[in-house]
Amino acid sequence: MFRPRKPTPQIRSLRSLSNWLLSIALTLGLTAVAVAIAGPAAVGQEESSGATPKPDLTLEQYQEILPEFLTSFPEDREAIISFEMDVDVLPSTDITIHERITYNTGTRDVRRGIIRDIPKVDLLDNGQQRIYGVSLISVRRDGAEVPYTVEDSGTTLSLRIGDEQRTIQGVHEFEITYSVANGLDLLQPSDLDSDVPPQVSAGDIELYWDFVGDEWTFPVYESRVSIRGPAPALAARCYPDPQYALGCTVDLNGGPEGATTMTAETVGWFELDGYLTGAIAWAPDAFTQLPAPLIMDDPQATQSRQAVRNAPLAGIGTAAALLLPVLVAVALRRRSRGVVSPASPVRYEPPKGLRPAEVQAGLKGTLDSRGFAATLADLAARGHVRLRAEDGGLLSRETLTVTRTGHAAEDLATWESDVLNAILAGRDVAVLGEENPALASAVVRVRTQLSDAARTSGRFNPDGHRPDKPFRLTALIGLLGLVASIALVIMGGETVPTSILVFVTPISIGLIVGGLLGAVITPRRQTKVSANFIAETEGFRRFLDSASAAARRDFAQRAGIHEDALFATYLPYAIVLDLEDTWIDSFRDVDPERLLTYGVSATTWSGVRTLTQHMSSSMASGASMRSSGSGFSSGGRGGGGGGGGGGSSF
After folding, report:
1. Which of 86, 181, 356, 411 has its CB surrounded by the most CB atoms within 10 Å?
2. CATH 2.60.40 fits 72-299, yes or no
3. Which helix (H) or strand (E) holds 162?
């Protein structure tokens, strides 16, 4: 159309800021020129009476001089010195474009070539897309062949011109030749307004083209376009970037072979971008056929409209994916439980004959660092070792000193002896907190032994997780669907399949949440033996978790044991049941120094609490296996074993 193409609101806002800065620069430039030319008279200094005063320059004269300063460019700056295009419009309505890009690499960065993005799709005001058939013909640099790659995204033909292994410096000329189909328009009466030249009428054929785009990352100093048609042009106009251009001239049919030329210069010494758009019209009888623009609906807009229509159904599917697993889990909760655990009144002793680690193995099917820490506390309470926590300060980790008492070991189970021997390693005193391969091996053996014993005895039902397996599978399906959604976004290219994502993504999230909630609601299936064990343990837990110190004293008196003995004996069980803080808080009135008899070396209850924390952390540190590899340190740090990625340039 014979009207300038308007930039987007985002570009307009950025250019307004740049224009403000440019205005300041131009004002300063005009002032500098005035001072340089007008001399002292311009700043009010008096000349001698015999001197002839210099004439003052008008603002128009300053503006005529200013372009000489603006269009000169520093050689160290990356820029396109000139962008020349030869455009041949054929009678068949096809277009052949030959670009000559004179490019300066500058000296700031290492360069290997340029990237030329040629649009194949134009977004129209009504939301539709106009498709152009762009076909590459040839690519050259400095008159010779040059390596290049072509990437066609569907909306853009991207040319990467240059050798990745060779750098270039200075000024080089890149030549690109390509053809364009569906690039002409047949003017309609609705396209004509008062701005259209009188030589142009409805039915004429028009080329309305962005000859130089505004997406270059470095400035374009000069643009020149030569357009040859099948007949002399009726009219032509060019529209340079009003923010950065110094003007645009049109020579209608006055160029070589009757070509119409358009020339524009930009304020190139700023790193600003500009564009050059032109419109030119011919009579229709110069063509063998009328143009037929290829206009289609925007695929992304179509997807979005379909997504809006699908949203209600997707909402129903998401609600079903979220609620159905939960409702099923609630309905099957009683059946999933298997044997119902009997009532669990308060018990004043742990399950008969079981050590703290065995209780944890019966509840969880395995042992963790708390289970082994409870074993240490149990050995101390029974008089086999003494425990003392050591704070390493800010620069060292805390450690736990374990001292053998010489107490007879006849009442130790085989697995207890295995752990104790791995810690002491034949010595009377050992420090936990550093890597101990022998202890790590013993931990693996004991964990396996007690886990197998819990399953064999029936205290832990290995099939207890089966009722919640369907719900975990549901969550897994949802996770796979979510991964598929992300893959669709990544692989979708220019068009994101939102009509599909509106179903897949929320329903997948619903399946994940619903499946996990169903798994949480579903209890573990218990056998008669495991249900009785859980009931006994729960009754003992209620005793340890009671806030009544008076009840504990009453139990200690009836059982004929001291309160400090009661505390030390049951502390290991409180550790595996995660109740050590509650158990410690209930014995604040007992002198902690009396616990030394039971292998606990602490003078305050705060020290007792610290000791229990040190036991878990020290066991975890001592039982950890050393990592393989070097890394020039013990086990190394970080990932190791390969290089790290990053960086790109052209």
Report:
1. 356
2. yes
3. strand 156-162
Most confident of 262-266, 404-408, 511-515: 511-515
β-bridge pairing 245-251 and 121-123: unpaired
Distance, in Å, from the CA atom of 321 to the CA atom of 515, rounded to the nearest integer, reads 9
218 Cβ contact list (under 8 Å, min separation 6): 77, 78, 79, 80, 271
String of b and e for 30-62 (b: at least 16 CB within 10 Å)? beebbeeebeeeeeeeeeeeeeeeeeebeeeeb
- Can you give the pLDDT at residue 473? 93
In terms of phi and psi (left: phi > 0; alpha: psi -120 to 50; beta: otherwise), the region of 635 is left
Q: Is the pTM of this model over 0.70?
A: no
Q: Would the pLDDT of 358 be above 60?
A: yes
Q: Which of 132-136, 195-199, 246-250, 388-392 has the lowest mean pLDDT?
A: 388-392
What is the per-residue pLDDT across 117-130, written as a single tens digit (0 to 9) for each?
999 988 887 778 88
**Domain residue spans of the chain:** 72-299, 356-464+525-626
Average pLDDT over every residue of 299-324: 84
257: left (phi over 0), alpha (psi -120 to 50) or beta: left
Q: How far is CA 628 from CA 409, 444, 631, 635, 637, in A?
A: 36, 18, 9, 6, 11
Radius of gyration over every alpha carbon of the chain, rounded to an integer in angstroms = 42
What would the DSSP string read from start to end of 480-501? HHHHHHHHHHHHTTTS--HHHH
Tokens of 429: 């005193």
pLDDT at position 291, please? 92
